[in-house]
Amino acid sequence: MNDTFLKACRGEKTDYTPIWMMRQAGRYLPEYQKVRANFTFLELCKTPELCVEVTLQPVDILGVDAAILFSDILIPMEAMGAPLYFHEGRGPIFPEPVRTREALDRLIVPDPELHTGFVMETIRLLRKELKVPLIGFSGAPFTLATYLIEGGSSKVFWETKKMMFTQPDLFHSLMEKITACTSLYLQAQARAGAQALQIFDSWAGVLAPCDFEEFALPYVQKIISDLKATGLPIIYFANNGATLLELSVQSGADVLGLDWRIDIGDAVKVVGNRAVQGNIDPFALMLPKDKLRQRIGNLLHGARNAHGHIFNLGHGIHQFTPPDQAKIAIDAVHELSANHKYR
Ligand code: CP3
Fold it and tell me: Among 26, 39, 42, 114, which is least packed, fewest CB within 10 Å?
């Protein structure tokens, strides 16, 4: 069992810096495309044997140090009773957005084994196969709320912020229900065998710090405090969150995920004795090999004082990235971090 990733999460010394990549199982891999060609994305997410196959692909092909469960942050939102489909090109769509008390009251807090048993089954199957740790995950309540309220992806978040500012009670009630669902969902993943848990706050960065503190952070804190009893390392990734980093530390997470907009050395000073995860610009994977290796060396050096560093991209790998470029980066992280010149 390669436990380098778990050691780094706990701030323990490692022989080299572990790496995995957000969205490492996905469309940039021809092997994923081949499986996906026969199923819709949701069919794939709901078939444990297929989820296992695509979760293992980046581990086998690229040699990453952790696997992340193949699923989607919106799966438990569908289980709450919000109809969901994925549109090729437009992404996720909730055709019945949640914008009223009546719509909120119709949502349930699902039993994770009963309503999303396929996720737990995937985790149980994966643990029999994997030689690297398995990361389970969820969305953060604010990010999940944006999808439910907007009815899908958004750029300006008009409906979300309108509810926050004109009907704060309704917004907080929705956040409470999503939080209850997410907390149970992650606890079930821990029981099924997940070895670390990441909470994705993809849209936290659209909030002013005061609004993040009032409308988003308390719910992340609640989930993380509920998870303490599992003993698993918790990673909180607030995308575009450099301006929220000091507040994000108060989430209680063991590891702070960083996007590429912040210098990792600056981030290390803010997070104190917590580990950091990140944070190369996903598009920098397109650099020529020598420049890419140089950038990775600089990043490793920048993180040398971290209380644990897990190398990752600053966000998901782009779907047109050649897998060979990802492999160059992974090999470079392993090789350069084993050399004391960099760490
Ligand atoms: O490898 C992994 O990272 C594990 C699997 C994973 C997926 N989605 C698979 C996926 C994870 C961890 C997610 C998280 C997720 N899903 C997030 C948070 C991370 C982030 O990117 O900020 C969000 C916001 C979603 C919601 C979502 N799912 C969107 C907006 C989209 C469409 C966007 C797009 O790129 O088309 C998805 C679809 C999705 N989720 C795909 C994959 C592999 C592409 C589906 C396909 O095969 O067509």
Answer: 114
Does this model's pTM top 0.70? My answer is yes
In a domain, 36, yes or no: yes
> Tokens 């009670």 sit at which residue?
169
**CATH number of residue 148's parent domain:** 3.20.20.210
Give the rounded percent of residues in the chain with a pLDDT score beyond 70: 100
Which among 72, 201, 254, 259 is annotated as catalytic?
72
- Distance in Å, CA 51 to ligand 1 centroid: 13
**Residue 27 among the catalytic residues:** yes
Indicate if 127 belongs to the active site: no
Catalytic annotation present for 72: yes
Encode pLDDT of 172-193 as tens digits. 999 999 999 999 999 999 999 9
Pocket test for ligand 1, best of 52, 72, 186 (most atoms within 8 A of CB): 72
Tell whether 343 is covered by a domain: no
In a domain, 57, yes or no: yes
What is the domain count for the chain? 1
